[in-house]
Amino acid sequence: MKKANSILMYLFVLLLLVISIFIACAFGSSKVPLKTVIDVLGHSLFGWESETLVKSDIYIVWSLRFPRALLALAVGGGLAVAGAAMQSITRNVMADPYVLGISSGALAFVSIGYLIGGTLVSTGWFIPSLAFLGSLFSLFLVFAIGGFSNSSSPAKLVLSGMAVSITLNAVAQYCIYNQENGGGASSIVNWMMGSIGGARWDNIALPAIGCLLGAVFFSFHARSFDLIALGDETAITLGTDTKRLKTLSMVVVAIICGFSVASCGIIGLVGFMIPHVVRIMVGTDHKKMFPLTFIIGGIFLILMDVLARTVLSPSEVPVGIFTSLCGGPYFIWLLRKKKKG
Question: Residue 339: what pLDDT?
Answer without folding.
Answer: 59
